Amino acid sequence: MSEALARDVVKEIPPKAADLSAWYTAACLKAELVSYSPVRGCVVLRPYGFGLWENLQKDLDARFKATGHENAYFPLLIPESLLMREAEHVEGFAPEVAWVTQGGSETLNERLAIRPTSEAIIGTMYAQWIESYRDLPILINQWANVVRWEKATRPFLRTMEFLWQEGHTAHASAAEAREETLRILELYRDFAQDVAAVPVFAGRKSSSERFPGAVETFSIEALMPDGKALQSGTSHDLGQNFAKAYDIKFTDADRAVKYAYTTSWGVSWRMLGGLIMVHGDDRGLRIPPKMAPIEAVLVPIVRSGDDRALDVCETTAARLREAGFRVRVDDRDQQPGWKYSEWDLRGVPVRIEIGPRDVEAETAVLARRDRDKGEPGQRQSVALTDLSATLRTLLEDIQASLYAEAKEFLDTHTFVTTDRDEFLELCANRAGMVDIAWCERAECEAQIKAATAATTRVLRDLEESGLACVACGEPARVRAYFAQSY
RNA sequence: CGGGGCGUGGCUCAGCUUGGUAGAGCGCUUCGUUCGGGACGAAGAGGUCGCACGUUCAAAUCGUGUCGCCCCGACCA
């Protein structure tokens, strides 16, 4: 078999640039993150994918706790009457709610919704728990699954059942609730950039993009390689809307009975889809070290009659684990080259090769996934005694490098314009984030969407006054990033 | 929900137009030789062609329906 043919035969995923969608789906499946299940629109999160989720969970959870939140768990099923209390909320979610109508052989008197989100059930409980301003704030998060009856699905980005966390808080004042909303937005922004190595724009959503029932919605928006934006986390200031719908009242210090101010916020496994698309390359995933289930894989090179390398790998791995690294020894009966390719595909940041030469010299070869293009070269030989320190530095460098690469992409695909035609063209061509002065009128946004398929992603304050909306010429009220989105 | 495509061993696909109950490569199993970028040899195992109904002496091949997946658009995290 010729070398070219051999290479072709082993190609598992299509080039990323040619067809991002095909690349993405193949990458998720071939890297064994997910499998399709017998249930339409629902995927199985396989161990490697769950490992990614666990790292996200672990990091975010620590951040929530550090900001005073506690975890709790609320029921999966929500009585219809509860779900229906907040008018906008109902309207927004009704089309995608799955219902339980029967229990055993008995038809239910009242349908039960499988939660599409938990404001209804949590709000109901908060109403029971809160009496006094002394009971506030309530700062609770839950890690859960939710179901939304979607028509079109793709791994992580949109599935009927998905994993997420949803924070729900109640406060005594509007200012406190807004502060909480923004605190979480910043927490999400920092997590996305620092841990997932995905640069984002954070800001306020337009009214058309607002969460059903919210007073104000904020989000973080990442830019995918095809120029589409991915909403990667949302934080809602619900004002008193839900408090009024669910009767969340308290007696304040001034003896007046008042409605509480609530917030809700969430990040789902969609974030994983984002980091996969942002960082992956033609050879598969490139997982940022802080998110990687396996930070380094040790590959022993054994020869017949010489399996010393395997022993050295085992003892080295044990030492690295003691030092706090997540490592795995790949002792499977395969060729080393086969293993390299597979771990490349699965995106393990660093590969540690140990062969007979290394055994003699008490060294190991380190290869970094992000830069190594599959040919020898981007590798370094390290003394085993220095391995831990070198690996630590290397992982930090890879984390920073992946972020820098993604940031470079975002920067070069963010366009500021004051020209209407150019604005529309950039939007229609899916060029990236298009930054304009905007009037903030829903009609204007709808027209832009009809013409270009782009919508506002996030808004921010205008730095100067007297500007006209680039799209329609009316007085500008904000700056807005426009983009097509997932 | 509209437009398009697809469904054949674990994977990628051929066969379907011109019906006669399945093929290739890769993978898998065993043994041996190998092992620093997807090894080689030998011997094996594995599918009834998404599902249902229909046409026919006969269906992977034709028809209808249905389920699922992919892509594009509308909707949404």
Structure in words:
It is a single chain. Mean pLDDT is 93; it is low at 1-10. The protein has helices spanning 3-10, 20-30, 47-66, 80-83, 87-93, 119-129, 174-194, 241-246, 270-279, 308-322, 336-346, 356-361, 387-412, 420-428, 442-452; strands spanning 34-36, 43-45, 70-71, 77-79, 98-103, 106-114, 138-147, 161-171, 200-204, 216-223, 229-239, 249-251, 257-259, 261-268, 296-300, 327-329, 350-354, 363-368, 379-383, 414-416, 433-438, 455-461, 478-483. Strand 10 and strand 11 (229-239) form a beta hairpin. It is α+β, with helices and mostly antiparallel strands and 486 residues long. Helix 3 crosses helix 7 (174-194). The two termini are 42 Å apart. It binds one RNA strand of 77 nucleotides through residues 6-7, 9-10, 12, 19, 21-22, 25, 36, 38, 40, 92-93, 95-96, 117, 146, 148, 150-154, 157-158, 162, 164, 219, 230-234, 266-268, 270-271, 299, 301-304, 334-342, 344, 353, 355-358, 365, 374-376, 453, 486.
Mean pLDDT: 93
The helical percent reads 25-40%
Largest sheet report: 7 strands, mixed
**CA(first)-CA(last) distance:** 42 Å
- Enumerate how many helices there are, as a single number: 15
Count all strands and give the number: 23
Question: What fraction of residues sit in β-strands?
Answer: 25-35%
Tell me the structural class. Answer: alpha+beta
Q: Return residue spans where pLDDT drops below 50 for at least 5 consecutive residues.
A: 1-10
Radius of gyration: 25 Å
- Shape assignment: globular
> Order of strands across the widest beta sheet?
3-7-8-14-11-10-9
